[in-house]
Design goal:
It contains 13 helices and no strands. The protein has 338 residues and is mainly α. The chain has one domain. Helix 4 packs across helix 13, helix 5 packs antiparallel against helix 6 and helix 7 crosses helix 8.
Length: 338
């Protein structure tokens, strides 16, 4: 399966290069107008994004009665993002890292597991707000097609599934454990059909996870309405990413409107979430220029904007995440008190 992903990414990359080659002269002309200042501003905004993501985690932690420093959470969150790229497991790898760090720092692992899972849900809820605005722009411009509607519905379905699992864990540990065990059993039967003898998912681990979720929710110290605060941080996160996109446009002196930024970002982030590749590698690079072109941005300009945007929002966090993951295991920090 991984080989298929690699082949898929290479095909998309070759397609982008082949299409762009015919406009090489236009691309070179656009590059001559590049302003490094806006690129540096985009990087600065990205580092602010690291901190706002940590504040979102921090607000969720406070709901569960756990307190941790912003910079510490920023480092763990960045490392978790790195893990989710190099070992894609639908965000489970990042949650496992948070749980591991929780034990090392003296926090209840169950609470941190719930906090990390809540982050995934609330981050998607925040993006759905932005996506709704982007879809409105596309409808007004008559650019909304079936693929975008399908991807949006898929994202909504994922968010609803996350919400249902967390709600079930909040209400009943036993019901959540039984549900996850059934899912694990079904997955094991499916992979066994392809000749795998060992269990792919553990039913025992499913019940343990349900126990951790129920244990985490038992420490809820504020009303569920307080979830609005982390959602607002999540929306601010997306606004910062849109600022990076604006800097990419300004870097090449490409005119834009508010609608172009909102719709362009919404589609790019939507491709990232529903992509079969980790963090949308290859998929976003291939589809984002097409989306921007449909919003009346020139093809050569769309390619350069996409590469600039992805450099700042994917490759820089990836490199910082690798550094953060390494320092988490070499810093020798003492466990924090709750």
């Amino acid at each position: 399966m991984r080989k298929l992903f690699v082949i898929f990414i290479l095909i998309l990359g070759v397609a982008v290069v082949a299409i762009s080659f015919s406009e090489l002269e236009t691309i070179m002309s656009t590059l001559r107008k590049a302003h490094l200042t806006f690129f540096m501003i985009a990087i600065l905004v990205q580092f602010i994004w690291f901190l706002t993501t940590a504040r979102m985690y921090q607000s969720i932690f406070h709901l569960l009665g756990v307190h941790e420093a912003t910079l510490t959470l920023s480092r763990i969150a960045t490392a978790a993002n790195f893990i989710n790229v190099v070992a894609p497991t639908a965000g489970v790898g990042g949650i496992a890292l948070f749980a591991s760090e929780a034990r090392r720092r003296g926090h209840p692992a169950g609470k941190i597991t719930v906090a990390a899972a809540l982050f995934l849900l609330l981050d998607q809820a925040a993006f759905l707000v932005i996506l709704a605005l982007g879809l409105v722009v596309l409808v007004r411009r008559n650019d909304l097609d079936a693929s975008e509607i399908s991807a949006s519905l898929l994202l909504l379905g994922i968010a609803i599934s996350y919400a249902f699992i967390l709600y079930l864990g909040y209400r009943s540990e036993e019901k959540l454990g039984n549900l996850l065990a059934k899912v694990a059993r079904g997955v094991n039967r499916f992979v066994r059909f392809f000749g795998r003898r060992k269990e792919y998912l553990s039913e025992t681990r499913a019940h343990e996870f349900a126990h951790e979720v129920a244990e985490g929710f038992s420490g809820l110290t504020e009303k569920p309405s307080s979830l609005l605060r982390p959602i607002l941080w999540g929306i601010f996160d997306k606004v910062l990413l849109m600022c990076v996109l604006i800097c990419a446009f300004l870097s090449f002196e490409v005119p834009f409107s508010t609608g172009t930024i909102v719709a362009g970002f919404s589609l790019a982030y939507l491709f990232l979430i529903v992509s079969p590749t980790p963090s949308g590698i290859g998929v976003v690079e291939a589809l984002m220029p097409i989306a921007l072109t449909s919003l009346n941005v020139g093809w050569s300009q769309s390619v350069l904007i996409t590469l600039t945007y992805r450099t700042v929002t994917f490759w820089i966090p990836f490199g910082v995440g690798a550094w953060a993951f390494r320092t988490l295991h070499t810093a020798g920090e003492q466990p924090a008190s709750i």
